[in-house]
Each structure stands twice: as structure tokens, then as C-alpha cells.
Design goal:
The structure holds two protein chains of two kinds. Chain A has 22 helices and no strands. By secondary structure, chain A is mainly alpha-helical. The relative contact order of chain A is 0.15. The radius of gyration of chain B is 20 Å and the shape is elongated. Chain B is mainly α. The chains are: A mainly alpha, B mainly alpha. Chains A and B meet through α1, α2, α3, α4 and α13 of A and α1, α2, α3 and α4 of B.
């Protein structure tokens, strides 16, 4: 009774426009107050343990790194480098934008930050190259979703915090899928641009390429720092976030000379405001999970699924459908924190590798950020491009198909997610 | 949709700006301490326990202090597509409903946070690390943060709802 009241109330509050964090907290509080008031004293402790979780501290600091990269205009040298590298091939300007997103994904870990950063600099470049606005907006909307698949993925940090799996292997699990999807999308965008006759190839200029490379090398070092730092064991994810912030600040001040003290203050303020809203969701999710666990819901769900005799693959296909539908109503983070505490025990009982589950859920979230009416990338890019959401959604159709194919591949081939972390753990 | 008319209440505006600045400072403080930990461990080969403890306390305070400004001018992570389909009158009703829900949640959490803080203060509860940090100082962020959120909710109830979207 307590669990069903919580779920019904949660969805009513969300549908009435209450921020998701508050809806989670409110519905859980009502359930505890009316059905199990002896649990009330634990609520405060549960909130404090979520807000003072050291692993979760990586989230605000990576958000700060992303905000710093935007304010420090660190995406500019990347745009120039990828253009110098790929613009000479037909459809190269579009593919270059995808490559920029892949590099930038290694700094931000958040799709909205990436869409905002690459959108601001990439859209005018594609405009100038003769790409239709809707198509170039769709390219950036889709390519910026890679931000949550490759390290430092905020989704993986959350997955780690909720399921208590180490974050290093989770980061690595997203690497191969992220790179493969990026490369496949570069080919697809180049093909679609060539077929549509968008953008003429530019002559190859070695001098421009070398100069762009020298200019961008400082920014490219950031994602390298994240991956090497974490996997060499030199830094924890939270530490590497602080190193990236320090490094980003140093290069923005001394190399690119674009950031002022006021910008740094603004970065801190926007970081804490976004982090505050995210933490409210995390606090709400921990209370929600607390209520569900107190009622034994995960255990009941496991028993129910086991009676259906589902194979792991059948379960994952069902899960994909469910997450896709939920993606139309909930933002990625909320979808993850609400469903994961319920899904994880079931997946464990079916013997599904947590790394495989993490990648699948992340690709689902990637699709979700592009789905109306709540897809955050749609809103960010609609604001930057001035296009209506409907126009962007229409241009996104081939990209939806692309992501669905990617999702099917990830579902059928768990090795894509599990091979690299397993191989790296053997080599250490 | 959620901007309060802060300029009508200069004291509240001042409180919001101050708490936002303190929260921003605590965030960068947490990042600096973590970075210092990296330097101390890798260069000076020492790793004091407070290095991982202090940033979490600082950030806890930052999150709760920022509650007011986050709701006032931060990103609103929620689903308002359904509400926008309502008539202007019902959009106003949901606006006030949302503010009352916010006030009720703030009130309950303020109370629970105060009880927790008071208990920890009375029992002299400290962290189980070498720092032995008094836990009530950390928990105090909870009632103060939700008090700020309650003030924001009251402000919303008192102010006129923003222009509704008739589409």
C-alpha cells in the first residue's frame, strides 16, 4: 500500500509540473508519514548521507569543468581542428561537428552542457558551410548525447553510486560503444550531407591543420587526463574532476586568455544552482528507494519476473521498451534514479553484467534527451538555433533510427560494453 | 514560469544573493581541497583524512544554501508540458499548488532536520575519522536550507503567478 501510494502520488505530482526532485521527496514523505511513521527519524539521516556522499561530489565538479569549458570557449579550438582535419572530404563539415562533440564529451559528462557549448560555436560554422539549420541542429543534438556515454559520464557516476559498483570499469564500459557510435555517426552524417549536397569540401591545408592542432592540443589533453588519470589509479573520479577544473582554469587563463574573475564566479554560481537541483533529485531518489526497500518492492519484483521465466535478453528488450516510453515523460537523470533501484536487483538475479546494464541504460537516456516533450537537448538547441522543437524533431528522424540500431546492437552484444573493462582489469 | 518577484522584497533578494555567493564559494572551496589532496598525495606522499571529509561537508552546506536561488533562477528540472496544455485558470491553480507543495515539504524537512541536528548536538555525535568533526554542524545545513526554500515558497504564494501560456 505504501509503495503503490508513493508511485501514484509521484506520477501525479510530476504531471502537475512539480519539479521531479520535489515530487520524489513529497511522495516518499507522504508515504512514510501516513503508513510508516516509525521510519521518519531515518529520513533526515538518509538525506544527509546522500548529500555528503564523496563519489557524488564528482558530479558538481565535472559540471564546473563543463561550465568552465563553455565560459572559457574551449570548444573553439576543437571546432577549428576537426574542421581542418575533416572539411576536405565530402560532408566533412558535419562529420567534423560529430568529432568535436566526441572530444568535448570527454570534458563535460553532461549532454545539455555539451549541446549548449558545441551548439553555440558549431551551428554558425555549419551555417556558413551551407548546411540547413534543422539538419545541423539535429547533428549537434544527437552527437552531444555521447557526453553521457564516454568518461567522465555523470550517468555512470550515478549508476556507481546507486549500485555500489566501482566507477572506473563503468567509465571504461562506455568507451567502446561511445567511440563506435561516434565513428558510425560521422560516416552517416558525411553520407547524408554528401547526398543532400550540403557543404562543399574545402581544400586540404596542412599549415591550417598543424596550427589548429597546436592550438587545440591543450583542450584535447583534458579528456586524455580523465581516462588515463582514472585508469592508471592516480586519481579517483572525484579527484580527476578537480584536476580537470584546475587544468581548465589554467589553460583558459594562460593559454587562451579568455576568462575573467567574474566569469569564474559565474561558473561557480551556475554550477551550484544546477547541482542543487540535481542533488534534490538524488535526495528524492534515495528517499524513494528507501520507501521501496522498506516495503520489499525490489524483492517482490525479482520474484515476479522470475515466475515469467524470462531470459536475460528478453528482460533487456522489455526494459528497453519501458525506458523508451518513460523517456517521453521523465528526464534522463530522473529516469535513472527512479528505475535503477528496482531494475538492478532483477538484472542481478538474471545474471546480467552490471556494465552491460549501465551502458544500455545510458544509451536509453541518450535517446530520451532527444524525445519530445521533455528531451533536454531539444530545448537547449531550440534556444540556440531559434528553430521550433517540431522542426528539430523532424530532422532528427534518421538519428532516432541510428540510436535505436545502436541500442539493439548494445543489447545483443554485451561484449561491446564488457570487453574493455575486463581486458583492462586483467592487464593491471 | 517560476521567477518570483524578488525586487519587491529587498531583504529576501539580499538573502538570496548572499546565500548564492556563499554556496558558490563553498563549491570552489570543496574543489580546491580535493585538488590539494591530489597534490599532497602524489607530491608530498601524505594523505590526511580530512581531505576527503571536509569537501563533502562544504558541499552539503553549498547545496542547501543554494536551494533558494536554485528555485528562483536555476534550471527547473520537471515536466511542464502537460500543465502548459491547461487553461490559463488551471495553470494558475497548479502554480499555487506547486508553491504549497514546496512549502509543505520544506516545513516537514525543516522539522526533521532540526530534530536530527538537535539530537546530534545533545549526543555530541562526531564523525568516525581522525577529524572528529561535530556532525550537528553538517546537519544544521538541512533546516537552514529548507527554511530558505520555505521563504521562497511563501514568496511565490504571495506574488502574482507569471504570465500563463495560453497555447
Amino acid at each position: 500500500m505504501m509503495a503503490s501510494t508513493t508511485v501514484i502520488l509521484l506520477f501525479c505530482l510530476i504531471l502537475l509540473g512539480i519539479p521531479v526532485g520535489l515530487a520524489l521527496i513529497g511522495s516518499s514523505l507522504v508515504a512514510v508519514l501516513f503508513f510508516s511513521s516509525e521510519l521518519l527519524p531515518s529520513v533526515g539521516l538518509s538525506i544527509m548521507s546522500t548529500s555528503s556522499n564523496y563519489i557524488l561530489l564528482a558530479i558538481p565538479i565535472f559540471i564546473m569543468a563543463g561550465e568552465l569549458a563553455i565560459k572559457g570557449k574551449l570548444v573553439e579550438p576543437l571546432v577549428e581542428l576537426t574542421r581542418a582535419l575533416l572539411a576536405p572530404i565530402p560532408g566533412g563539415a558535419g562529420a567534423a561537428t560529430v568529432l568535436t562533440c566526441m572530444f568535448f564529451a570527454g570534458i563535460t559528462g553532461s549532454t545539455a552542457a555539451e549541446a549548449a557549448a558545441v551548439g553555440s560555436f558549431g551551428l554558425p560554422v555549419l551555417d556558413k558551410a551551407g548546411y540547413p539549420k534543422a539538419f545541423s541542429t539535429a547533428i549537434i543534438a544527437c552527437a552531444s548525447t555521447f557526453g553521457i556515454l564516454v568518461p567522465p559520464s555523470l550517468t555512470m557516476i550515478l549508476f556507481s553510486s546507486i549500485t555500489q559498483n566501482p566507477v572506473g570499469p563503468l567509465f571504461m564500459a562506455g568507451m567502446i560503444p561511445g567511440l563506435l557510435m561516434g565513428l558510425a555517426m560521422m560516416v552517416m552524417v558525411a553520407f547524408l550531407s554528401w547526398r543532400g549536397g550540403f557543404g562543399q569540401p574545402e581544400p586540404f591545408d596542412l599549415k591550417r591543420l598543424v596550427s589548429a592542432m597546436f592550438s587545440a592540443i591543450w583542450v584535447i589533453a583534458m579528456p586524455v587526463l580523465v581516462v588515463v588519470g582514472i585508469y592508471s589509479g592516480y586519481f579517483t573520479p572525484t579527484e580527476v574532476a578537480s584536476v580537470v577544473v584546475a587544468y581548465g582554469l589554467v589553460i583558459a587563463i594562460s593559454v587562451y586568455r579568455v576568462i575573467t574573475f567574474k566569469d569564474v564566479v559565474d561558473v561557480c554560481k551556475s554550477t551550484i544552482k544546477l547541482s542543487c537541483m540535481l542533488y534534490l533529485i538524488l535526495i528524492g531518489a534515495s528517499l524513494f528507494a528507501f520507501v521501496m526497500t522498506a516495503e520489499g518492492v525490489p524483492q517482490s519484483l525479482v520474484e515476479m519476473v522470475l515466475t515469467f521465466n524470462l531470459s536475460p535478453l528478453e528482460f533487456l528488450i522489455l526494459l528497453n521498451f519501458m525506458l523508451l516510453i518513460l523517456g517521453c515523460f521523465l528526464d534522463g537523470l530522473s529516469k535513472l534514479v527512479i528505475t535503477l533501484p528496482l531494475i538492478y536487483p532483477i538484472s542481478q538475479s538474471l545474471g546480467i553484467n552490471p556494465l552491460h546494464l549501465a551502458v544500455l541504460m545510458t544509451v536509453n537516456i541518450e535517446l530520451g534527451v532527444l524525445l519530445p516533450p521533455v528531451g533536454i537537448n531539444l530545448f537547449v538547441l531550440s534556444g540556440i538555433s531559434g528553430l521550433k522543437i517540431e522542426a528539430i524533431v523532424k530532422a532528427l528522424v534518421p538519428f532516432y533510427l541510428f540510436l535505436i540500431v545502436a541500442l539493439v546492437m548494445m543489447t545483443y552484444f554485451p561484449d561491446l560494453s564488457t570487453w574493455l573493462p575486463t581486458a583492462m582489469s586483467h592487464s593491471l | 514560469m517560476t521567477k518570483s518577484n524578488l525586487s519587491d522584497y529587498p531583504i529576501i533578494e539580499k538573502i538570496e544573493k548572499t546565500t548564492e555567493s556563499v554556496a558558490a564559494f563553498l563549491t570552489i572551496f570543496a574543489a580546491v581541497i580535493i585538488f590539494l589532496g591530489v597534490i599532497l598525495r602524489n607530491i608530498f606522499k601524505t594523505s590526511p583524512s580530512w581531505i576527503s571529509e571536509l569537501p563533502t561537508y562544504a558541499f552539503t552546506w553549498a547545496v542547501f544554501l543554494a536551494l533558494m536561488s536554485a528555485f528562483s533562477s536555476g534550471p527547473q528540472l520537471g515536466l511542464d508540458a502537460i500543465v502548459r496544455m491547461f487553461s490559463a485558470r488551471w495553470q494558475r491553480v497548479t502554480y499555487y499548488f506547486s508553491a504549497f507543495v514546496m512549502l509543505a515539504i520544506s516545513g516537514i524537512l525543516m522539522w526533521l532536520g532540526s530534530v536530527l541536528t538537535f539530537q546530534q548536538f545533545l549526543t555530541n555525535a562526531v564523525s568516525n575519522t581522525a577529524l572528529r568533526f561535530p556532525l550537528w554542524i553538517v546537519s544544521l545545513a538541512l533546516p537552514i536550507g529548507f527554511l530558505l526554500m520555505a521563504i521562497h515558497a511563501i514568496l511565490r504564494i504571495m506574488s502574482n503567478p507569471p504570465e500563463v501560456d495560453p497555447s
